[in-house]
Every structure is written in structure tokens, then in C-alpha cells.
């Protein structure tokens, strides 16, 4: 027994003598600070409300997406929003759409490289497949102009050519969501689609 204690004593000595040397950070990282600030300002939502935690999660995620300096985290945050949508469904999340859809379009514009933009456009297409007909409120909206975004990245610019496949996927999801109402956009889209086929 004494031999075992003498063998392990050097391992436990720092515990017994408080000789640990570590320091706690003086301030939380900026991304965590956003979340903490948001929790501090609940905006009048009672913690007993069934939507309290959902509201706080969505608000915090959207604040990160709106901040251009956090663009490296946008892919992860948009993925988290998509998981929330996938698990809860449209009924609970309908009130959040006016904040969520513009956040997706601003993340696409803030993307510094085409791979990030391509991923964000695909996530927006997935979002459209979930929200279905509700997308029509955001197609020409001044805050989340989805068709404006499509026009912006679907130009005769070889720089944006890698995005065409993702943009066509987004258009396809919008067409499925709108059904016959989509025909209003066809005169503008058909020449661009034909141009892609001729390449």
C-alpha cells in the first residue's frame, strides 16, 4: 500500500498543494458575447413561454449570420438553423421567416469565395423546400430579394460559373413551391436557362 502511494504521489501532488498554473480568459470570445448579450435582452419574452428557448436560439444564430466578421462561422450557423427547421417544422418557425430568409441572402452576399456561396445557396434551396409557398413573400422583397440574388450571381461572368448548378437547384425549388404562380418569372428565366444549356 505504501509503495502504491509513493508511486502515485507525484501525480497527485499538484492537487494537494494547489500548484496548478492556468488562467481563465478575461472576456468571452466575441461570438459567445453576442449570444450572452442576446440572452440578457430577452425582448419581453417570458422564460416560461414555450417559445422562449427557440426565440433565443434563433435570435442568437441570426446575430452571428448578420455579422460579416463571423463569415467563417456562417456555414455552421446556417446548418444549425436548417436543423431547427427540419426538427420543428414550418408552423412553429413561420414567425421567424422575415428574419431568417434575409439572413440567408446576406450570408450568400457576405461569402468571400464561391464554395461558401454555393453551400449557402444550397441551404437556401433546402429552406425553400421546407417553407414551400411562403417563399413568395421573399422573392422580390426589399430585405430578402431572392430573385435579385439569382440575377446578381447568374451573369455572364466566369467568376460565378461554379454557382450555376446551385442557382438552378434554387430556381427548381422555388418553381415546385410556387406551382402555377411561378410562370410570372419564366420570361426572365428562360433566356438564362437556354444560355446555360448552350455552353
Give me the number of helical elements.
10
Strand content: under 5%
Please give the radius of gyration in angstroms: 24 Å
Structural class: mainly alpha
Query: How many β-strands, per DSSP?
Result: 0
Largest sheet: none
Termini separation comes to 81 Å
Percent of residues in helices comes to: 55-70%
N-to-C series of helices and strands? HHHHHHHHHH
Shape: globular
Mean pLDDT across all amino acids: 79
Runs in which pLDDT lies below 50 for 5 or more consecutive residues are 1-16, 18-29
Could you say how many structural domains there are in total?
Answer: 1
How do the helices and strands line up, and which of them pair or pack?
Blueprint: H1 2-17, H2 30-40, H3 52-66, H4 71-88, H5 90-93, H6 97-110, H7 114-131, H8 146-153, H9 164-178, H10 186-198
Folded structure, characterized:
The protein is mostly helical. The protein has one domain. The protein is built from 10 helices and no strands. The chain has helices at residues 2-17, 30-40, 52-66, 71-88, 90-93, 97-110, 114-131, 146-153, 164-178, 186-198. Helix 3 (52-66) packs parallel to helix 6 (97-110) and helix 7 runs parallel beside helix 9. The longest helix has 18 residues, at 71-88. The protein is globular and about 60 Å long.
